[in-house]
Every structure is written in structure tokens, then in C-alpha cells.
Design a protein that fits this description.
Layout: H1 15-36, H2 41-68, H3 71-92, H4 100-125, H5 129-149, H6 156-159, H7 163-176, H8 179-182, H9 184-203, H10 208-225, H11 234-241
Helix pairs in contact: 1-2, 1-3, 2-3, 2-4, 2-5, 2-7, 2-11, 3-4, 4-5, 4-7, 4-9, 7-9, 9-10
Length: 243
């Protein structure tokens, strides 16, 4: 079996890179700033850091990889997004992470997973791959935000299907101090989808690897579905709810 070398899409427009900066850093940072203006800012930051970081990683990593076509570009920009947003959150009052190792592991695996999907879009749709990436990022981000703002508004099976929600769970586990063990299902799901997605990209235009990718996605979604929900930081939850 011969692997077909990956080719970079010929995207000459600066628009996708502007969107990368908006989706990866500017919009998530503005969301953190808006939370900073609330009376319970530190608590709100603790509760929202997971979704905000996950959306930033996804926006930067997926769209960048889909635009450039190289996996490492997406991973690098996703990690830079995570670092910038972490500094912003910390500056605004987020307490020090109780488990930095778990947080770093979650950021790295999520970055690779999102960038892998972007690389597949670049491979399958060429210069229009970033369009698909923008649509996917917008859709998953909307669901993640809805799930955060109204926890009971969406069914759990739907959330279990979304890699962005997996990343949110893994990051929130690290913020809550649960450690790596509690985030294992989400991390395994992110890593597994990254591996199968890259396999599809390398074997393109063969279609049979898609069956493997979608089968793995459904199986890993089931794994995530049966894991406990990420615990909220206790003090943050008490402050926000006034209990």
C-alpha cells in the first residue's frame, strides 16, 4: 500500500488567517473579559475556562491546518492560542491550576486532534477546506456555549459526539483538580480520532478509511458518554449559585 504524499492547498487569501486570529484568540479573550466584568468574576472564570480554551484551540488549530495543509502549523497555533488564553484567564483572576500536568496534556492532545481534522479538510477539499473548518468550528462552538450556559438544554448523547465537548471535559477536569485519571475517556477519544483522521488524510482519495474513522468516532463517543460529568470547582459553583 502506497501512501499518497500530502499537498498543501493553494490558499492565497488572508481571510482565513484573520478568522484564525478571531476564533482562536480574540473572540475567546473577549468572552473572558466579559466574564471579568461580572460580580462573581473569579468563579465565572473557573466555570468557563474549559469551554473557552476548547473553543480557542479548535478555532486556531482546525482552521489553520485546513488553510495551510500542514498538521504542525495547526498544532502550533492551537497551542499558542491555549497559552495566550491561559495567561489572559490567569491575569483576570483565575486561580492557579491544581494540576498543570493534566492541563498541559489536555491542551496538547486536543490541539493535535483539532489540527488533524483541519488537515483532512485541506486534503479532501483543497483550497476550500478552510470553509468547512470554519463551519465546523462555528457549529461545535455554538453547541459548547449552549451546553455551558444552559446545562440541561441539550441531550447528553449529542454532547458526547462532539470533540469540542471532549476537549472541554478534559480541560475542565484539570481545572477542577480531578487529575488525568478522570479525563482519560475524553483524552483517549481525542487521541483516537486524531489517529484515524490522519490515516484518512494520508490514504486519500481512498474511501474505505472513512468507515474506520466514523466507527472509531462512534465507539469513542460511547466511551465519553459513559464517563462521569466533569466536576465543577466547588468554591466557584458555590459563589455563582449563591449556596
Amino acid at each position: 500500500m502506497t501512501l499518497i504524499p500530502l499537498e498543501r492547498p493553494r490558499v492565497r487569501s488572508t481571510v482565513p488567517w484573520i478568522i484564525v486570529s478571531l476564533a482562536g484568540v480574540i473572540v475567546p479573550a473577549l468572552a473572558l473579559l466579559l466574564l471579568f466584568g461580572t460580580p462573581t468574576a473569579p468563579a465565572m472564570l473557573a466555570l468557563a475556562a474549559g469551554p473557552v480554551l476548547a473553543i480557542g484551540l479548535m478555532g486556531a488549530g482546525m482552521i489553520a491546518a485546513a488553510t495551510d495543509g500542514r498538521l504542525w502549523v495547526g498544532v502550533l497555533l492551537a497551542l499558542l492560542s491555549g497559552m495566550v488564553l491561559s495567561v489572559v484567564a490567569r491575569t483576570l483572576g483565575l486561580l492557579p491550576l491544581p494540576d498543570p500536568v493534566s492541563a498541559t496534556l489536555a491542551l496538547v492532545i486536543a490541539s493535535v486532534s483539532f489540527a488533524a481534522r483541519g488537515a483532512l479538510f485541506a486534503r479532501s477539499a483543497a483550497e476550500r477546506g478552510w470553509w468547512i473548518a470554519v463551519a465546523v468550528v462555528a457549529g461545535e462552538a455554538a453547541i459548547v456555549v449552549t451546553a455551558w450556559a444552559k446545562p440541561d438544554a441539550l441531550p447528553q448523547w449529542l454532547l458526547a459526539l462532539l470533540p469540542a465537548q471532549w476537549a472541554t471535559t478534559a480541560i475542565q477536569m484539570a481545572i477542577s483538580g480531578s487529575g488525568t485519571r478522570g479525563a482519560v475517556p475524553a483524552l483517549v477519544a481525542l487521541g483516537g480520532t486524531a489517529a484515524t483522521t490522519l490515516l484518512v488524510a494520508m490514504l486519500w482519495p481512498r474511501r474505505w478509511p472513512y468507515l474506520l474513522m466514523f466507527s472509531a468516532w462512534l465507539g469513542l463517543s460511547a466511551l465519553v458518554y459513559h464517563q462521569p460529568a466533569p466536576p465543577e470547582p466547588i468554591e466557584a459553583a458555590r459563589t455563582v449559585r449563591g449556596s
